[in-house]
Amino acid sequence: MAKPDLIDAPSRRDQTLAITLTVAAAYLPLGRFMAWEVSAFLALVLVLRFAAARWPAATPGRWTLLILTLVGGLNCLVANQSLVGKVGGTALLVTMLALKLLELRTRRDHRVVAIVLGLLITVQFLFDRGLGLTLYLGAVAVMTVALLVDLNGGLGAAPWRRTAAVTARLTLQAAPLTVVLFLLFPRLDAPLWNLGLERDTGTIGMTDHLEPGSVGELVINGELAFRARFATPAPKRQQLYWRGLVLWEVDDRRWSQGADLPPGKADRLAQMADLIDYEVVLEPSRQRWLFTLDLPAQAPDEYPADTRLGAGFALTATAPISSAKRYHARSALSYQTKAPSEAERRYALQVPRNVTARMRSLVAGWSRDGATDWDLVQAGLNFFNHEEFHYTLLPPRLGANPWDEFLFETRSGFCEHYAGSFAILMRLAGVPARVVLGYLGGEPNRIGGYHMVWQSDAHAWVEVAIAGRGWVRVDPTSAVASFRVDNQGASRLLGAGAPLRFQIDAAGPLGRAIRQLRYLADSVDAAWQGWVLDFSSEEQKRLVDGLGLREYGELALAGIMMTSVALVMGLILLALMRQAQPQDPVTRSYSLLCRRLARVGLTRASGEGPADFARRVGAARPDLAVAVGQIVGLYVRCHFTAHHTTADGERLALRVRAFRPRAARHPPGPRDQRG
Amino acid sequence: MSATGAGGGGFRANLQRRLQDLLRKAPLDADGIARIAAAQIYIMPTPTGLLYAIAAFTMLMGSLNYQNNLGLMFTFFLVAVGLVAMHHCWFNLLGLAVQVRPGPAVFAGTPAQFEVTLHNTRAAARFDLRLAGGIDPGTPVCLNARDQQMVLLGLPTRRRGLLALPAVELETRHPMHLFRAWSYAQSGAQTLVYPRPAATAPAPVQDQGQARRPAQRGGEGRDDYLGPREYRYGDSPRHLDWKALARERGLIVKQFGGEEGLDVWIDWAQLSTPDPELRISLLTRQLLDTARSQVRFGLRLPGRELPLDRGQIHLQQCLAALALFNPGGDGIGNHGQA
After folding, report:
1. Stretch A496-519: mean pLDDT, rounded?
2. Does A536 contact B at CB distance below 8 Å?
3. Apex CA A134: angle with CA A523 and CA A36, to 5°?
4. Cis amide bond preceding A295, omega within 30
């Protein structure tokens, strides 16, 4: 076997430059996830690479490379404190790939870089899965294929154009195969091993507690929380209370979930109406809670398998949500829960130790005239409405006792301030209360036919237990007089993406057009999410079930995959064969003539030239001599002389087609039989 | 390489030949052209292809484990490109027409040339075709649609005799160097390898003992001396102008004219060297030396005699007789059985 070194031509400088630029292009989107030291090292290596390409004498020697390798490794270690894991491992891969760029001598080196580039592309999807990035990296991948084609060479004249043509053919033919493999390759339901790739990432979205300022931070983060698609007409915006987690315990600063209560008897609905079915696609949050409309109304066994309905109708997943989560749910917009147990009531009446005297006297003022619990709730809401309370995303900082300071001094805050302090006031008044964290509203996307719920729709509200009515939702934030809502601050912080509750109008037709574009982009994104990112073994199972092959399971899937791949490959080969006609038309005409003559017993001997054959035919069948002589004359002119025209070829084809010899009446030999 | 002949005894060579016979080769058709068919194409991944496969497998495992659909999609893209490339590689050889013609005869030790014509009858181009096993790897050939090209295949020669090239090995790594497809195309081509001339040889026998050989007249030359010329490979050192060499004028050979009518017999029986191959080599030297002068010469071998004649064609016949001479047996032997 020939050694690859022998047959490999030396690499060209433009190949070196092309592969260097491709590596740089592949790293570009990754840069924002890497420590700046890693990017800086890559930039240094690129500078060295270009210098070496310009002045070959500047190519780093063996010792320089060794030192650079050590520096690069140390750099990764210093930047990430680790050489493994998602960020650490990727940084190391990037560093080593960059160093290999300084050692591009043979074409083999170039090929190694091109192949490792594929790894770099794949690794990036651990960081970002957007459609734009995918398209960009797709272009990089095609470029990698082109580099490999160009490195193999042997393309004759105009190598760049031919490289492009060959690459286009390869990738276009690979595309259907890719789709088949993607759809049918059996997936794992759970990871086989865990390298702790998710360890070094924080959570996204809602936290598990509420303190002044926490929701406000979330609102400023303008990312998407989830998408919801209603099976029935969507409810009104003010009905869209997306329930997340329920907070029971309060201390000096924060509300938290507290003890993990089992679902009590209050966690069943006494009455329900206005049922609504919907599907939610939750963006990965690395948290466990799922969001349902107030209030989820399914039987306990109707919830998705890997979820659990806890106390206070809080639906949680059994594992943190690391990839987009799709689930169906049904909720009742009008409902009445059963009465809470005595233990629950007691739990929902605890107050923090830093309750001040003026808080107590405020509440005492409301309950003075022997009012009902509901009257107390109304009194609390009136307090927020009539006093100088402001609704703003930019509240002043609160000191040691945030509840008291908010209620009596600053009096401006966001939903967490209102919900947190209102619940405390209710508990002081003897009304069991709890805080619910979730989202309010959602932006209808008419193009996509679903609602987009943003992190900026995050909201906190209160539920109070009223005798005879169970837990009742109260939203103290809505009690704030609308003229005291600070739209300007919200507009400044959130721009056109501000939630509708601030009632910021999109400015004129341009703003509306931009909003429509945003809806369109999000629809594409949602489709991407649904069709590509969320594609899983469930869809594959559905396909196998649909074909009635359920009992064969993965085996059936593998079988379908093999068959489909073979089928696609066969089609590709068929296309190749058709595209490459084995014979030119002149030869084809001549072989047709030979076939027709053979049918009447005049078979051309192997190695017999056309003129000799024509002479023999003429001798054996004088009646055919003229026709065959003309045809062969044309054939000889077309095939063996340089100056013939395509018209000659066409005339030859016409004549041959018209030539239909009959068997001789007096057969010259036993072979002359019409078949 | 698949060239056999010009010697090649021994167990290993035999075994190699047997194995070669087991390989599928594209057969010659009536016109002496071999067309590579599907069943005659071999294909294996290259080291680059193996690296590619390892990279793809790593990506597959990682993406499957972390249920990363985009990673899977890109992995499958690479896998699909690899699969398509494999078929393109195979397809690049399919249907290629190969015709081999022998080059001129050579002396043992100098490379024998074969002219390999590659003919692409397709309406699409073929890329990166190479002849494997030649002395130098050469540049890859690209054949445009319905194009043909001639490539020289040089083979080393060590022994005299017929050098048959039973098959040529064609290979391609198109399009991505991931796979190497190769095929053996039969060829009926064989070329003659003359014996390697000895560096020096004793003077051949003069006809009937008449001392008319110029060298033996001590180079006095009288009117027979034609003048000096530069030394050429194969000139006898006895014709060297030693005085000129001593004066540092380089290697000069004295040329003698007027040798017409001199007859020289190159005679196997006149040499006493026991080793037959060495004797043949000496005879070759004598032939070349003699043919350079204008004398008539003949060749006597056991069981064969080529009559006195002069000229290039006669020389070639004599060399061919020497090349094919079988000293152990009954005259002419053909070493290289195709």
Report:
1. 65
2. yes
3. 115
4. yes
Q: Where are the domains of chain B?
A: 4-46+92-194, 205-332
Mean pLDDT of chain B: 81
Chain B hits for A580, CB-CB cut-off 8 Å, are: 91, 95, 122-124
Q: Complex ipTM above 0.95?
A: no
Which residue has tokens 């030859």? A652
Please provide the distance, in angstroms rounded to a whole number, between the alpha carbons at the two ends of chain B: 14
What architecture does CATH give domain B4-46+92-194?
Sandwich (2.60)
To the nearest 10°, the Cα dihedral for B220, B221, B226, B229? -30
Looking at the complex, report in whole angstroms how far the Cα of residue B233 sits from the nearest Cα belonging to chain A.
32
Which residue blocks in A327-368 are alpha helix, DSSP H?
342-347, 357-366
A181 neighbourhood in chain B, CB within 8 Å: 76, 79-80
Q: Do residues A493 and A613 share a domain?
A: no
- Please give the residue range of the domain that contains residue A602: 585-658
Task: Judge contact between A253 and A211, C-beta under 8 A.
Answer: yes
Which residues 540-569 of chain A have a CB within 8 Å of chain B?
A: 565, 569
Average pLDDT of the residues of chain A: 83
pLDDT of residue A501: 53
Number of folded domains that form chain A: 3
With contact defined as beta carbons under 8 Å apart, do B268 and B302 qualify? Answer: yes
Residues whose CB is less than 8 angstroms from the CB of residue A322 and which lie 6 or more positions away in sequence, other chains included = A198, A284, A286
pLDDT, tens digit (0-9, with 9 covering 90-100), for B118-175: 998 888 889 999 888 777 767 788 998 888 888 888 888 888 999 888 889 999 998 9
* CB-defined contacts A:B, below 8 A: 188
**pLDDT greater than 80 at residue A200:** no
User: Lowest-pLDDT range, A125-129, A305-309, A654-658, B317-321?
Assistant: A305-309
Distance, in Å, from the CA atom of A152 to the CA atom of B41, rounded to the nearest integer, reads 20
Q: Please, are residues B37 and B94 in contact by the beta-carbon 8 Å criterion? A: yes
